[in-house]
Every structure is written in structure tokens, then in C-alpha cells.
Design a protein that fits this description.
The complex is a heterotetramer of chains A (about 450), B (about 600), C (about 290) and D (about 140). Chain B has about 600 residues and is of the alpha/beta class. Helix content of chain B is about 30%, strand content about 25%. The two termini of chain B are about 25 Å apart. Chain C is built from 15 helices and 8 strands. In chain C, helix 6 crosses helix 7. The chains are: A alpha/beta (about 450), B alpha/beta (about 600), C alpha/beta (about 290), D mainly alpha (about 140). Strand 21 of chain A pairs parallel with strand 1 of chain D.
């Protein structure tokens, strides 16, 4: 190499995977550029209520991490930003990052929240999975890191009709800047970690389950928001249609997973456990409620996982029914679920108040773009492919580019964290070798 | 008297929405010792921090209380800000009026405001008696010890060694490779395990930074993170395996392995004698792997007696040797039954947990069997098929559709020998039929258990295990590769059953933790830990027993207890245990606690 | 050695031979079985319902009778052993139940009696070596299938004094007597027990599986310690040939009978005439 | 026929009664089927032993009361001895028999047994049978 390799890493995605890798590398004294598409970091985990199998509050264990990342002297946080171009190779990648216009000057903004309070435009929040509102100027959550809002240009009244500017009027520091434009930032790094995470399979593709048609059919992340103390119902389980407390709740696993013919052939790995958790937490909140879980195989393979599911059955009286649900529809104010119990050989029907679907996990929207930018291989479903599945699970075929977390495929939090640290180890090894070489040179 | 400044944060409406912040400021201003009080929308923001720095300068403050969110959020932030203005960070404290007050008392603003004032007052009392402290710094020995030479241990060792640090790799067996040595091929591609493994072993053996000790075990551990002293006993070294790394490497680092008992030249290869080596070590990775539950534990499956009832690893050996022949008479088995959950998911009689790897290796074995014996019939009895991993589900579906493996949902009740066959009493809960297979060979997917001796090792290392002997991680979600003991990390199946990809990823993760530790010039230790008042200590030793971190020891000759500062976590167990009030926490003394209580009583 | 002894109803009637052979053999081995002076039927099934205290009364009375004689009770019938032992377990672990039952029987059973199966006593107190030493007419060349049934094995934690999946106490005894126990897989499979009363077909099928397995393993006789198993296995053979063409009956004996034979005792009252499949030709063939 | 599941059905009185009488936690059963696989009388049953538990888990007690299976359980305890969850199925069977006997009367009518057979039965078969088959 002609010039000294750069001991700085780019991490794409600031969910729990990206943050873990960032902290491991930054704590070893190297610089990290952490790019996140959303306005704040934390990823999917920030949406969760409690975590299995300990039922720790997700926010409580996540917040110290996000704060640490936000304050770390070696981590350069680039939120609301996307990687646009990557050139170069191992030791010297040149990266172009586009920071989207937030229409808020973050240098001046104190994050006081007044703008969000005063903004007259309410829209459905993606973060709340469609069951809660946000304003046109918003942060993802009160604990957002960084705690700075962005204006969503599509829903802002001013951008639409040329007047309003309520936020600007009330902002005590004059941080609103409607003229702000996207900024281009150039970074040079020696290695790259891809930690782009996952999305949920669009349930509109599963017509038989009534999602989108029946308001009381929601997805699992929406149920997380329902359970979350910081969610739209402040942790009360209420069904979307009429705000009533649901007494019979059906959880349907494998909604789009293990379905090679129509949807995704693979198992999404995490649903069995979070569904057991959902049923359990539901019972904690609605003591006289009845929870049903329709499954094909219960996949509780992990430390204290099996015991956790057994607890859901024994202590929380959750009824597990082995069989895939065939149809969900609305009738007489109830959500009818047609399923089967392959163990007794009986077809069953539940008149439910709420149905929670566990959709297949799919690669994060836009990860195909990242794959192209970095010239990385993906499998037929769009998941990033490791150099060798067994012995090189975090390496890619491209030197200096590594993988972390659910960008590779469905993965739960502990596995994600361990694997993200694994990616960090790869980078640290490289940097240490370069340090030796640079030192000798 | 200390001049204390109070800074009350609104946190937008998070605090100010419930608590009357102005009133808090006015009331607390009147409290003895308070020289300044102010509020601000977001104290953690740059203007907020500037406010603090300015007030320190203007009013000569030497104690700071920030009334805001949990200290877990911003203690570091405010201590940094105070330090920049010349106030010792340990004289800066947080009064948590958000999580503990405004959020939980949203409907009672009046009471919340009163509680906020009282809470701040308690912290004022604390700051009044806080000492200005300086963090300890400790040197780090940049050599790692990896215990276990399986795929996990080797992966970790290579990462650390590649980064330029010396590694001592200890393996109990005569050869490296661990359980992977016994495997034939790997799922999903039937890659030959021995080839992949040999490459790894060669890389380890040839690595100038790795010292391999086979036939060796850790016998004693002293010290603490960054500065462990480890004694390793090696029964004998197999020729061809390295005993020493190049001398220069060791000499440079200034720490030689010190054979304590025998000089190597006195060793006779025929009569191996134990040697003991002592190493200074900065970080330890435990990668001791797993064993299988002995078949003798499973009486209903023959209790280990029928020769044609074997376990998963025995079948791997058959596959590796190329020919599938049953042990009893060497015949090629035409009907083979795999029994999953043999001892797993059985809280009543065996192991309550799922062993995680069996579903996949059984599918692989059944397919490999069919590749070798195309006219054979393979049956798999299962409770739930757990093929959760990239490409795993598809793999199992291939076993069913391409290899015609018959999956039967039900736990096998009995396996016995009769008329030269192995009879399997099973069930198919899906058709509702009890079934029987006259098999030629039965493979039990026996439960995965911790490696023999794991518990003893854990005791020697002073790390905790779960009730089965798997090493406990520091946090199940966010700290999966760390043990609860600082400086000791976990890799692979020593923590819980794991397949190879997960093991490798996690072993790399453990390496990252070691590299992070070694990257620091020295370790910084919080000074808010316990100390012993020598005048008051009677040397009763109760605190030694009470300390969960092994941070308390008796003085070598004086009748007093001493604190091993590097190990102390400041939990306060010793304070409670001490009958003489000789144990105390820095900046949380008993006197301090008592005065802190006064404002709320 | 003297030990209080509970023969049970069946050993007083249809299984009299079991009882006679057992007492004579024990006496010959220097162990005396002292029949409880007053005893009643144990109830023949251990009550499986939580609220069924009434059915515990009978076995508690037996325990009370035993308590008057000492702290150990030998039981010959495996069903009785199972019922009395489990009752005893319940009373020992459930103070409330003990109090209720004592109130009911107007006496004080204290829970101190150890309930033992006679085979267990033979193994642990007499010792199979001592048995072997006392053998006068070794059963050399006799291939036998030791059959344990259910009652001394299950539930394992409550009643088993042997490996519940692969028991061997009876095999060991038979070996000590000079016989050759065959290895066979059905030594602990259920014969159908009281299903015989209602469903002859089911019992016949269950018995057939056991008997045919024993014969495939080369057994010339099946040896058991359970009077109900003995009855089922023996009786069902009468028309087994009709269901399973070519079936050849096999004698089903009590272990005490073979014990007495090997010890060289007078076997006249061993109840040979009560067997459905005649045992005598086989014994005579031994010489 | 589609069975309508509801909290009311899955927790109906008969289900509770079976749990109370047997002292067993029905939902502790995770349907591995080991009981069925080892049951020596399964060949004569119309429902597998594990299916009996399953139906009760679903609240379908009537089907179980109508089934032959509980009457073919010999209480041999093979299932319980091997159950990974420690469910004592023989107690559940007993509870089902008890309910059936109370609701529907004796299962065994003594007059139906031929006199000569009756004379031959050992006491314990006789008493045991009557305890299991009559109220």
C-alpha cells in the first residue's frame, strides 16, 4: 500500500448491531463514522417494549448504549444520512455521505420539544407502526439520540401550502431553517461494517390474514408499541378499532415465513420467542384475557428460551395451537380466526378481539443499494452473504468490508450483539496490524 | 463550607410538565450551602452546559448538583462539564427527578414538586460531604489466555494474535480441534470439517504470537483484570506441538513462562510428568465447549448397552470414516432412526433446555446417510423442528423432499434390542398413531451439556455458571460474550449450545473485547469503591466472605482486611457485613447516608 | 431375621402357591416372614385422585398394623406393595393427610414404617450370594425370562428399588439360582392388569407381546413377582393359539416357586395345580 | 366441523374439574407424545393418550368422555415415568373416568361377566377393576 492505511471505520446502520460494533472499536481508541438513515440511533430495539427471556425493559438497557454512542469522543454520528458512494479499497475507502435536510439547525437546536408541541400537523407515525401519531416536525422518541427533530417535508403544511411556520415562530433558539439543503460529507475510512438490519414483510401481501382491512389485525412491532410504556397507549393493551381492552388475543406465527411457495421460504428465527413474550406480557396486563398462539414448530433454542416458552404455557396459561392459520376476517365486531390443531386433528375457530401477526423478516429497504455501492453479494432474498457461512460468518468476499447483525439474516439481540462484536474484532485486528506496520515504517 | 450550585433541567416537558421547576429553584436556593440555583430547558445541551461552566466561574462553586434524568444518562456529561470549569468530577452529582419523580407522578404535580425539592436536598447533603477523588489507573498486561483449543478458542486466539498480541492457548486434550475434530462435514454444504479444521490448526500452530499448551489445564488463577497470574499444568507435550514461542517474543514482553517444578530436559517422553507454567495475563477467554449427555443416563433408550444405539458424535465418526456400518456386526444399516431431544427439553428427568444444534445436525446426518446408502430409509423423531438460521429451514425441507427422510412428530418412548434389530417405540402425533420401527441403527441426539470439568474451572476462575454448568454471560441481551468477572470473556458452547457459525461469530466477539482492553494504555478504575478503616477493622473476615467480587482479602500478616481496588465494584456488601463499621464506600459513607436522609424525614 | 409380613388377599387365595413357596424359602434362608396378626385388603389400587382420601384408609390401616410389629413391613404382592408404599409416601410428605387419616382410623400412625418388597429384602437383607450358597438343586440349563411388570418400578421415584427402565434384581436372583436369565426387552411392559376384567382382547394382546418376546429370546419359562401379571400371562395363553397361529404356551411361574425348588424344599404346596399352563413337565425335565 | 375456541371453552368447568381431581397442570403438557409412543395399551385406544390431554387443553371434554381411551388405561404409569414435563397422565385418565362414572353411571356391569370367569379372577384384578370401572 502506497500510503498508510486509515485506522477509521465506517459503520452503516446504528441499530444495536452498528452501535455495538462502534463501541467496541471506539473503546479500543479508533475512530468510527456511524451513519444512520433515521434521525436518531437505536434501530429496531428502540421500538421494543421488553426483551426475552428476562423481560428487561428494552428502553432501559438500550438508552445507556445510545447515550454512550452519542457522547463517545471517537464516534462521529451521522444521522438522517445515507451513504451515497464508496470508492477505494481496504485501508483507504472514500465515502460520500448525504445528510438529508432536517430543516432544523441542529447546532442551535436544544431539543426542547416546543416545536413538536406547537406543530399543528399530525401524521401517522412509522415508528409507532401506524397505531400512533407524530407531528410533521418530530423526533422518534423522547429519548432520541441525538435529541434533535427533523421536518418531514411531505407532511409539513408550510412545504405544502407555503404558510404555517408555527415551529419557527415558537422556536426559542431560531433553529428552524426552511432553506436548509442536503449536505454532502466526505469521509475516508480503512474498513466498513454493514449493519443495515431488517424490515418486516409487507403483510398486505398476505390477503388471507386481513391486515390493512381489519383494524384489529396488527403486526408484532405494533404490538410492541402497544405494550411499550412510551408507546401511543402508554403501555395499555387497547385494540385500534375502538380502544377496548381485548380479552381474546390470537398470535399468528410464520406470517409469510416458511412459505416457499407464496412468500419467504426461510424461518424468521425470532418470532417464536417474541410471540411467547407478547402473550406473556399481554397476560401480565390483562389478567383475565386469553391468549392463543398458532405455530408450526416452537423454536425456542437459546439460553433459557425453552424454559421461557414453557412458562408462557404453564404460568400464563397461553394456549399453543399447532397449525397455520388459514384465514382471518371480520364478523360481528370480532376478528374471526380459522385455524387448525394438527395435534388433535380438529379444525378450530377463535372469535378474537385482536390478532397479532408475526411477519417474516426481510432485509432493510435500501440494503440492495448498499450492496451495490459496496459490491457485496446478497442471497436471493436480499440478505448479505458472508464469505463462508461456517468459519467466516462476519466477513465478506470484499476485503475490509464486514457484516453485523440482521443484515445477514434474521437474528435475535444477543446473537446480533455477539456477531457485531465479531465484526469489530475483524476491524480491530486489521487496525492493530496497521498500527504495527505504520509504527515500523 | 462548600459552595454548591443547583441546576434544574426541564427536559422539555418531561420534567417541567409535572414539576414546578421555578418553585424548585426558589425553594432550593434557601437551602443551607446552596450558593446558586438555576433552571434550563435542556441542561445537557451545549447552552445548558455553558450555563454550568459560567456559574462555576462566577460564583466560585465547588460542588454541583444537576437535577435531571437518571445518572445512567448524563452523569458523565455533567461531570465532564464541571471538570472543564475546574470542579472535581466526583463533587458533581445527579438528582434524578425525571425517571423517579416526574415520570411516575404525572398526576400529582404538587407532591412531585415537593419530592423533587427534597430529593435535591438529599443530594446537596451528599455533595457537602463528598471527597474530591481521582480515578485509579492500572497497567494492562497485553497477553491473553484462551482456555480451550476447539474452533471457538482457536478463532479467538487467531484474532488476538493477528492484532499483534501474544496468546497462550491451553488445551486439555493432546490435540487442538475440540469437538469439530470429530465431525465429518458441516451443514449446509457438507464441507469437509477436517479440511477446514486443519487449515485453522495450522494457522494457530504457525502463528508467532500463539503459544499452544496441549494436555494442559489451568490450575490456579490470581489477580484481576489486566493483571491476572495464571498457573497452567501441562501433563506432557506431544511431539510436533509447540512448547515455546520464539524466545525473543517472550523476552521482549519481559515476562517469561516460569517452569516451577521441572526443567524440560529432565522430562522423559515415555514417562510424562506434569510441568507447571506461570503466566502474567491481561485477559482470559473461556472456550471450553461441550460434551454430550452420556447414553447411560437414558435408560428408556437402552442405557448405553445396545451397540447399535449410538449418539450423534459416534455417527459423525462413521460419516468421517466414509462407511456407514453398524457397530454390532458391521452390516450396512438400511433403516436408521434418529431420536431427537434425547435428554433435552426434559425438565422432569434430564435437561430442561433445548440443545439447539441437534435439529440441524440430525437433518445433515440423515441426508449424509442417504447419500451413502441411497436405498436406506431414514426416520427422524422430533418435537419441534428448530431450523432457525440462514438457509436452515430450506436445508431441512431438502432432507424431507430430496432425501425422503421421514419426519415423525413425537418423542420416542423406548428403544430396545430384539432379534438383532433395534426396536423403536415412537408416535406420530400428527396422524395420531403410535408407531414402531424395526431399525438397524438408532442415533440418539443426546443433550448438549457443559464440558466435563467446566464447573471446577469456573470455580478456579471465580466466574459464575448457571445451574447446569454453562458459563454465565454478563447480560443475556447486551453483554453475551462477557462473564460477570471483569477481564474474563466467553466464547462458544461453554456459554450455551451453539452451532459452528454462531460459535465463530461469538468467539470473534470475545476477541473484540480483549482487543478493546489491550488497546488501552492503562485501565481506569472508578474511585467510588470500598475502603477499610484500619483503626476500626478487627480482622474478623466477614467482609471477605460477603464480597461477591473476591475484592476483599485478609492482609498477609496484619489482622485486617484489605480491598483489592481493581476488583471492587463498590456494591457495599462489605459495609453491611462489617460489625465494626470499618468498611465504607468512598462518597457514600454511612455518615453521608444519614445526613442525606435528614431532608426527607 | 424376622420381619413383619403382609401377604395380601390374592396370596391368600389364587396365589397361595406364591405365598407358601415364599414363606418356606425365606425360612430356609433364615429369614422369617411374620404375618401381621390382623390385616385387611389394601384396596388393590392406589387412589389417583387428589380428593380421594377414603381409599387411603385401608392401606393406612395396614401400615398401622405394621407399626405395632416394628418398623419394617415385607409385602409379597407387588400391587399391595405399590399401594401401601405410595400411601406411606403420601402420609410421610403430607402432614395434613396424615392427621386426617389418623383421625378417621382413630389411631396414630406415625409414618415410621419402611415398606419393602420381598424381592428387595431378598436382595438387600438376605443377599443373593447367601441365596446362591444355599442352593441345593441349581436350575442349571433353565432359560428364564424375568418379568417385573409395573408395580415395583413405577412411579420410579416412589416405588422403584431397581433400575426402572432396565431392572435386573429378578434376573440376578435367577442367576443365583443357577438358571440362565435371557436378555429380552419386555420385562417391564404392562400386561394389562385389571383391563382383564373388562377387555379380554386388550389383555390378551398385551400378554401375547410379552410372552412371544420372551420366547423369541429363548425363554422356557417366564418368572414374575406379580400375582396379577402371573394370572394374566398364564390364563391368556389358553386361547392364544387361536389368535396367533402356531403359538406354543410357556409356563409362567412365581420367583418364589423357583427359589423353593432350587433350595431343595418340598414343593407339594407350591400351587402347581393352579397354573393354566402346566409347569410340572418343565420342572421334571430339569431332573 | 370447526371447533370454536374461546376463553370460556378452554377454561370450562369440566377442564377445571379434571385439573382439580387429578392435581395435574394440563398446560404443562407440550405435546411431545412420548406417553403415546410408549403406552402398552395404545393399540386398543381410539384416541392416543397425548390426544386425550390435547382435547382437554382445547376444552373438548365431551369428546374425551365419549372416548374409549380412558377405559383402556391400565394405570401402569409408563407414561408418567418417562414424561419430560412430569405430567401424571394416569391421574388425568382417572379424573376423566371419575367424571364419566358420575355422569353416566358404571362402565362395568358385574352381571355381564361370566360366573366361571369371575371365580377365577385374582382378588386384586377384581377389586382393581371395580374401583376403576364403577362409581
Amino acid at each position: 500500500m502506497a500510503i498508510a492505511p486509515i485506522q477509521r471505520v465506517l459503520i452503516i446502520g446504528a441499530g444495536i448491531a452498528g452501535m455495538q460494533a462502534a463501541l467496541d472499536i471506539a473503546n479500543a481508541g479508533y475512530e468510527v463514522v456511524l451513519v444512520e438513515r433515521e434521525p436518531s440511533i437505536g434501530g429496531r430495539m428502540a421500538q421494543l417494549s421488553e426483551t426475552f427471556p428476562t423481560l428487561d425493559c428494552a428502553q432501559c438497557i438500550l438508552t445507556p448504549r445510545t447515550v454512550e454512542v452519542g457522547h463517545h469522543e471517537h464516534i462521529r454520528l451521522r444521522t438522517y444520512s445515507e451513504v451515497e458512494a464508496v470508492e477505494g479499497q481496504l485501508g483507504d475507502f472514500r465515502v460520500r455521505i448525504r445528510r438529508r435536510a432536517a430543516y432544523v439547525n441542529w447546532e442551535v437546536c436544544t431539543g426542547c420539544g416546543l416545536c413538536q408541541e406547537k406543530c399543528p400537523k399530525k401524521v401517522i407515525s412509522d415508528f409507532e407502526r401506524g397505531i400512533g401519531p407524530r407531528k410533521a416536525i418530530y423526533t422518534l422518541s423522547p429519548q432520541a439520540v441525538p435529541n434533535k427533530p427533523v421536518i418531514d417535508r411531505q407532511s409539513c403544511i408550510y412545504f405544502e401550502r407555503g404558510k404555517c411556520r408555527a415551529c419557527e415562530k415558537f422556536c426559542p433558539t431560531g433553529a428552524i431553517d426552511f432553506e436548509q439543503e442536503d449536505a454532502i460529507i466526505e469521509e475516508r475510512v480503512g474498513a466498513i461494517i454493514v449493519a443495515t438490519g431488517y424490515d418486516l414483510y409487507p403483510l398486505s401481501l398476505l390477503g388471507e390474514y386481513g391486515y390493512g382491512e381489519v383494524p384489529d389485525v396488527i403486526d408484532s412491532l405494533a404490538f410492541e408499541r402497544l405494550l411499550s410504556a412510551s408507546g401511543p397507549t402508554a403501555g395499555q393493551v387497547r385494540r385500534p378499532s375502538d380502544g377496548a381492552e381485548p380479552k381474546e388475543v390470537v398470535f399468528i406465527q410464520c406470517a409469510g415465513s416458511r412459505d416457499p411457495e407464496l412468500h419467504k421460504p426461510y424461518c424468521s428465527k425470532i418470532c417464536c420467542m417474541y410471540t411467547a413474550k407478547h402473550a406473556m406480557l399481554y397476560k401480565h396486563k390483562v389478567h383475565d384475557g386469553q391468549a392463543y398462539v398458532f405455530y408450526i414448530d416452537i423454536r425456542s433454542a437459546g439460553k433459557r428460551y425453552e424454559e421461557f416458552v414453557q412458562r408462557a404455557m404453564e404460568e400464563e396459561r397461553v394456549l399453543y395451537v399447532r397449525g397455520k392459520v388459514s384465514r382471518v376476517f371480520r364478523e360481528n365486531g370480532k376478528v374471526m380466526v380459522w385455524g387448525t390443531d394438527t395435534l388433535s386433528g380438529q379444525n378450530v375457530e377463535v372469535a378474537a378481539d385482536l390478532v397479532v401477526l408475526a411477519p417474516a423478516m426481510v432485509p432493510k429497504a435500501g440494503s440492495d443499494v448498499v450492496a451495490e455501492l459496496l459490491d457485496l453479494a446478497t442471497d436471493e432474498h436480499g440478505w448479505f452473504t458472508a464469505a463462508e457461512a461456517n468459519l467466516q460468518p462476519v466477513e465478506t468476499k470484499r476485503a475490509g468490508v464486514f457484516l453485523a447483525g440482521a443484515a445477514v439474516g434474521p437474528m435475535d439481540i444477543p446473537e446480533t450483539v455477539a456477531q457485531a462484536s465479531g465484526a469489530a474484532a475483524q476491524v480491530l485486528s486489521l487496525f492493530a496490524q496497521w498500527a504495527e506496520r505504520n509504527g515500523n515504517a | 463550607m462548600r459552595k454548591i450550585g443547583i441546576f434544574v433541567c426541564h427536559c422539555g416537558l418531561n420534567i417541567a410538565g409535572t414539576i414546578d421547576v421555578q418553585r424548585v429553584v426558589e425553594e432550593i436556593k434557601k437551602y443551607p450551602g446552596v450558593a446558586f440555583a438555576a433552571d434550563y430547558k435542556y441542561m445537557c445541551s451545549d447552552p445548558g452546559q455553558a450555563l454550568i461552566r459560567q456559574a462555576i466561574a462566577d460564583y466560585g462553586l465547588d460542588g454541583i448538583v444537576v437535577a435531571a434524568c437518571s445518572p445512567a444518562m448524563h452523569e458523565v456529561t455533567f461531570r465532564k462539564a464541571a471538570r472543564a470549569a475546574g470542579v472535581n468530577p466526583y463533587l458533581t452529582e445527579i438528582a434524578n427527578i425525571r425517571e423517579q419523580i416526574s415520570w411516575v407522578h404525572q398526576t400529582q404535580p404538587e407532591e412531585a414538586t415537593r419530592k423533587a425539592i427534597e430529593t435535591i436536598a438529599t443530594i446537596v447533603e451528599k455533595v457537602r460531604y463528598d471527597e474530591a477523588l481521582v480515578p485509579f489507573s492500572l497497567p494492562v498486561v497485553k497477553r491473553a489466555l484462551v482456555i480451550g483449543g476447539g474452533i471457538a478458542g482457536m478463532t479467538t486466539a487467531l484474532h488476538i494474535a493477528d492484532a499483534g498480541y501474544p496468546v497462550v492457548l491451553v488445551e486439555r486434550e493432546a490435540q487442538l480441534g475440540g469437538k469439530m475434530r470429530q465431525l465429518s462435514g458441516l451443514y449446509l454444504n457438507f464441507d469437509a470439517a477436517p479440511d477446514l479444521l486443519e487449515t485453522k490448526i495450522a494457522a494457530v500452530m504457525q502463528h508467532p504470537n500463539i503459544q499452544v499448551l496441549t494436555n494442559a489445564e489451568v490450575v490456579e488463577l490470581g489477580g484481576y483484570v489486566g493483571n491476572f497470574t495464571v498457573k497452567i499444568s501441562s501433563r506432557f507435550q506431544v511431539p510436533g506441538y509447540k512448547l515455546q514461542v520464539p524466545g525473543s517474543e517472550i523476552a521482549q514482553s519481559g515476562i517469561n513462562p516460569q517452569p516451577e517444578t521441572l526443567q524440560p530436559e529432565t522430562l522423559q517422553p515415555e514417562t510424562p510428568q506434569p510441568e507447571t507454567f506461570t503466566f502474567d495475563i491481561g485477559a482470559i477467554v473461556v472456550a471450553t465447549g461441550f460434551d454430550l449427555l452420556p447414553k447411560s443416563e437414558l435408560g428408556e433408550y437402552g442405557g448405553g448397552r445396545p451397540p447399535d444405539v449410538i449418539d450423534g458424535l459416534q455417527f459423525e465418526r462413521m460419516l468421517a470414516e466414509g462407511e456407514i456400518r453398524r457397530p454390532s456386526d458391521g452390516a450396512v444399516p438400511k433403516e436408521v432412526v434418529w431420536v431427537q431431544c434425547a435428554g433435552s427439553r426434559d425438565p422432569e428427568l434430564h435437561m430442561p433446555y433445548c440443545s439447539k444444534i441437534c435439529c440441524m445436525y440430525v437433518a445433515k446426518q440423515a441426508m449424509a446417510y442417504k447419500q451413502r446408502v441411497p436405498d436406506g430409509q431414514a426416520y427422524v423423531f422430533y418435537i419441534d423442528i428448530r431450523s432457525q438460521g440462514k438457509g436452515y429451514e430450506e436445508f431441512v425441507q431438502r432432507a424431507m423432499t430430496e432425501y425422503d427422510v421421514l419426519y415423525l412428530r413425537g418423542k420416542v418412548a423406548r428403544v430396545f434390542e430384539e432379534d438383532g434389530r433395534v426396536v423403536v417405540y415412537g408416535v406420530d402425533t400428527l396422524s395420531g398413531k403410535a408407531v414402531e420401527v424395526q431399525a438397524d441403527l438408532v442415533v440418539l441426539a443426546t443433550a448438549v451439556v457443559p464440558s466435563a470439568g467446566a464447573r471446577d474451572l469456573a470455580q478456579r476462575l471465580r466466574v459464575s455458571t448457571d445451574e447446569y454448568g454453562f458459563f454465565s454471560e454478563a447480560h443475556p441481551k447486551l453483554r453475551p460474550v462477557e462473564s460477570l468477572t471483569a477481564g474474563i470473556f466467553l466464547a462458544g458452547a461453554a456459554q450455551f449450545p451453539k452451532d459452528i457459525p454462531e460459535t465463530v461469530a461469538q468467539a470473534s466477539g470475545a476477541a473484540a473485547k480483549v482487543l478493546g482492553l489491550f488497546a488501552q494504555r492503562e485501565m481506569v478504575q472508578e474511585p467510588t469503591i470500598a475502603f477499610v478503616d484500619e483503626e476500626l477493622c478487627a480482622g474478623c473476615g466477614l467482609c471477605v466472605a460477603a464480597c461477591p467480587y473476591e475484592a476483599r482479602v485478609m492482609h498477609p500478616w496484619k489482622p485486617i482486611a484489605v480491598v483489592q481496588t481493581a476488583l471492587c465494584q463498590g456494591c457495599g456488601a462489605c459495609v453491611v457485613a462489617c460489625p465494626n463499621k470499618a468498611s465504607s464506600l468512598r462518597n457514600l459513607s454511612t455518615e453521608q447516608l444519614l445526613t442525606m436522609m435528614e431532608p426527607v424525614l | 431375621m424376622r420381619i413383619a409380613y403382609f401377604p395380601g388377599c390374592t396370596l391368600n387365595t389364587t396365589a397361595k402357591g406364591f405365598d407358601n413357596a415364599l414363606r418356606a424359602s425365606f425360612a430356609a434362608l433364615g429369614a422369617e416372614l411374620v404375618e401381621l396378626p390382623e390385616w385387611n385388603c389394601c384396596g388393590a389400587t392406589f387412589p389417583l385422585l387428589v380428593d380421594n382420601m377414603l381409599d387411603l384408609v385401608a392401606p393406612t390401616r395396614v401400615l398401622l398394623a405394621a407399626q405395632r410389629q416394628g418398623d419394617r413391613l415385607a409385602v409379597a404382592c407387588t400391587m399391595c406393595y405399590n399401594v401401601i408404599r405410595r400411601t406411606n409416601n403420601r402420609l410421610r410428605s403430607d402432614a395434613d393427610a396424615l392427621e386426617k387419616l389418623n383421625y378417621f382410623i382413630e389411631a396414630e400412625y406415625r409414618g415410621g414404617v419402611e415398606v419393602l418388597d420381598v424381592l428387595q429384602i431378598l436382595r438387600d437383607d438376605v443377599g443373593f450370594e447367601a441365596v446362591q450358597a444355599a442352593v441345593k438343586k441349581p436350575l442349571t440349563g433353565l432359560k428364564v425370562a424375568a418379568y417385573y411388570g409395573c408395580m415395583v418400578l413405577r412411579p420410579p421415584t416412589e416405588v422403584a428399588y431397581d433400575d426402572p427402565e432396565n431392572p435386573h434384581a429378578l434376573d440376578d436372583l435367577l442367576r443365583a439360582l443357577g438358571a440362565e436369565p435371557v436378555e429380552w426387552p419386555h420385562k417391564a411392559e404392562c400386561c394389562g392388569a385389571y383391563l382383564a376384567v373388562k377387555s379380554k382382547e386388550a389383555t390378551a394382546e398385551m400378554s401375547y407381546r410379552i410372552l412371544s418376546s420372551a420366547q423369541r429370546a429363548g425363554a422356557q419359562a417366564v418368572v414374575t413377582n406379580c400375582p396379577l401379571c402371573q394370572f394374566n400371562l398364564d390364563k391368556q395363553q389358553l386361547d392364544m393359539g387361536r389368535r396367533h397361529g402356531g403359538y406354543q404356551p410357556v409356563p409362567v411361574l412365581y420367583f418364589s416357586q423357583l427359589l423353593g425348588v432350587a433350595l431343595g424344599l418340598d414343593t407339594a404346596d407350591f400351587g402347581w395345580e393352579r397354573h393354566y399352563v402346566d409347569v410340572r413337565p418343565l420342572l421334571e425335565s430339569l431332573g | 366441523m370447526r371447533v370454536k375456541l374461546s376463553a370460556m371453552r378452554v377454561r370450562n368447568d369440566l377442564v377445571r374439574r379434571i385439573e382439580e381431581l387429578s392435581g395435574q397442570d394440563l398446560l404443562a403438557c407440550y405435546q411431545c407424545g412420548k406417553c403415546s409412543a410408549g403406552c402398552p395399551a395404545a393399540f386398543a385406544m381410539d384416541l392416543l393418550p397425548s390426544q386425550v390431554i390435547r382435547l382437554v387443553q382445547l376444552g373438548l371434554v365431551e369428546e374425551v368422555l365419549n372416548a374409549k381411551t380412558p377405559w383402556f388405561c391400565a394405570a401402569c404409569q409408563t407414561c408418567y415415568a418417562r414424561c419430560p414435563k412430569g405430567v401424571d397422565l394416569s391421574r388425568i385418565m382417572e379424573a376423566i373416568r371419575e367424571i364419566a362414572l358420575q355422569e353416566r353411571g358404571d362402565y362395568l356391569v358385574i352381571e355381564e361377566i361370566p360366573a366361571e370367569e369371575l371365580a377365577e379372577f385374582p382378588q386384586l384384578a377384581f377389586i382393581g377393576g371395580f374401583r376403576k370401572y364403577t362409581a
